[in-house]
Amino acid sequence: MVNSVGEIRYSKLNCIDLSSPDIQNSVSLLKQACLDCGFFYVINHGISQEFLDEVFAQSKKFFDLPIEDKMKVIKNEKHRGYTPILDEYLDPVNQINGDYKEGYYIGVEVPEGDPRAQKAFIGPNVWPAADTLPDWRETMERYHQEALTVARAVARLISLAFDLRSDFFDQPVMLGDPIGILRLLHYEGHVSDCIKGIYGAGAHTDFGFITLLTTDDVVALQICKDKDAEPNVWEYVAPLKGAFIVNIGDMLERWSNNIFRSTLHRVLRTKQDRYSIAFFVEPREDCLVECLPTCRSEENPPKYPPIECEAYLLQRYRDTQADPSSYKIV
């Protein structure tokens, strides 16, 4: 399962073809991947390479702006907009500072007057001025919609892996009306130093249901298949052009009663700049996350109490991210 190239150890991940007519094989590959390491590739997902290249080009245009322009669209209390370097603190035990990355959050667009906009993660997005970045908003909104379509296709395979009907997660309270958070990321070309506690992104598990990640060709992502092992054993995940790297999050761990476990991962920066785009998929804010009916029994009762998605996400964000009120707005 591991290839060694010099000092770099690569993890071999299952590759799931969403265009394959053999659904049972796809379900088997996904289930094996989630039991093994919680990470897998998804290919032939329907988003063209040409469009992916355009999304990355538009992302780079934003991060190339002067810092004073980026600070004009700083992250607000809804977690929309720009996040500067050191904003996030994913591994406070081992990090001396926050993550050495900058990002940009984009969620589901909900008008200010909509009753749902009163919720913590719901509302209008923050957008750069159209005269500064023409077509930027349109590109990101299209990508958000297309990534959500891919996420729903993956969720149907997860449903079948749990012997549920294929549309189980398509319910309105789940992925029919979800919290989908697109995050553009830029890691500047400075080298991480684990001994000194300097990371591009500190070791963490993702908070939600699943994450769809697409990256450039810079090798930087590491995973730890057994997060309870001491010491942790880290393996690199090789970028795969045109593919999504998918991983399961803490909510799916709770839903599955620890059958599928979220995976510890981190980013080590190199001398090269790195760009990636993460799409975090969560159910609707009022979804009650509780043990799935096929994941419990008398011998294996639920390990976690039910919790609403919004309450869970709020606590996790408070634990890891800077308070928007602390920003100095330009």
From TrEMBL:
Pfam families: 2OG-FeII_Oxy, DIOX_N. GO terms for molecular function: dioxygenase activity; metal ion binding; oxidoreductase activity, acting on paired donors, with incorporation or reduction of molecular oxygen. SUPFAM superfamilies: Clavaminate synthase-like. Keywords: Iron, Metal-binding, Oxidoreductase. The keyword Nucleus does not apply. Residues 177-283 form the Fe2OG dioxygenase domain. PANTHER family: 2-OXOGLUTARATE (2OG) AND FE(II)-DEPENDENT OXYGENASE SUPERFAMILY PROTEIN (PTHR10209:SF867), OXIDOREDUCTASE, 2OG-FE II OXYGENASE FAMILY PROTEIN (PTHR10209). Belongs to the iron/ascorbate-dependent oxidoreductase family. This is Fe2OG dioxygenase domain-containing protein.
